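Deviations from the work plan: none for this task. Representative record:
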Amino acid sequence: MTTPSATVGDRGPAPAVKGGMDWLFAIAVVAIAYALARVIYFTPDEAIQGPAQKIFYLHLPAALAAFFAFGIVALASIGYLWLGDPRLDRAAESSAEVGVIFTTVVLVTGPLWARPVWGTWWTWDARLTLTLFLWFIYVGYLVLRGAIDEPPLRARYSAVLGILGSLLIPFIHLSVYLFRTLHPRPIVIKPSAPSLPPEMLTTLLISFAAFMLFYLALVRQRYRLATERDELALEEAR
Amino acid sequence: MAPSTLSAALLIARKDLAIEFRTRTAFFSALVFALLGIVIFYFAWDPTAVAPIDLAPGVLWGIFTFSGLLGLQRSFGIEQADRAIDALLGSPISRESIYLGKAIANLVFVAAVQVIAIPAVQLFYGVPLLEHAAPLALIALLSAIGLVAVGTLFSAMAVNTKLAEMLLPVLSLPFFVPIVIPAAQATARLLSGRPGSEIVGWLKLLIAFDIVFVAACMLAFPFTIEE
């Protein structure tokens, strides 16, 4: 394996590589492991759905983390067009990529649960359709990023798409909502008291916290990668 | 003296339409594409199981988006030859006028394809579309405005990427979903003779989409221009 200084060659010393342990990532992995152990061994099975219901502890936190991720994309995109700070572009890029991963988790765990419980892998329910289109919008966002080499142009174009994509979400939601929806109604955040039994609610909240930590850790890693990539590009341009 | 936003926009639209009228390449390819699509879709279903009246709205609006993409691809593609876009940007015309002018030209293009495609669906599928000419024209106009608002912006972006035209459908089609669903649903309600109140909701959705995206895309357009 070549050392970083050997690949950079005579263009001067390599940028300092931040070595060592990524503590946030380590904590996030431990938190996810703890949440999963709790889901599998220390949370009662649901009376009707049985073990299939346990997917819920992955599915809902992943969905919330994905929505959060795309919210960050929209905010960072607005911020970029306003301030022109490349750090905001990197934040949007990182958050979009991690958001697509979490949306993929949602789209994979959903059918796994739906097959035994609804009796079908997929149905054109409003929330499923919206999630699928979220995935399409942000995969398109990543395709756009990959199709432009010049960083300022890439940043501006992706910011435009990041903002328009967030404007599109309510329209897709409205237009697909008018089809009858099959999805379970909200059972945690709703006008009356949560109907989830307390031990399940605790597991859900722990799982949610673990997913948010995992989201932050991944975005932080991805953001560092983007920073180093941009530094390397500057180095090579010199 | 710089011309006003609207008159400058009309000037740009007239330029684009004059180019299109003299060459007619994009229009005929979009038109033939639309007609081919209408014909091919007819054979994609079992006519003894699905009645043409159930197919027609979906085919009409599905084809509408795909043939619209053909026209949109050309919108900024023609400005790439000899870097004509630089002359356009150097002229004393605001960015908003360029966007608006391009969008108006695209709107005329898409509407012209629809004027032939809608009777063709009536002819080939035997459904009474033209009996509902006025509401259908309204649905078509509202859909076309939304389609060109988003499509014109993405066309300007796509030409500056490595993927060029390849990128336009990937970016645009998710945005056409809230256009195709209301347009197809409203058309289906019209064809099955449902009361007008069932269509109003879908029309409101189209109008809201048009307002939001015409404004948002016009504001975003200056950011998509490569100086």
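The mean pLDDT of chain B is 88.
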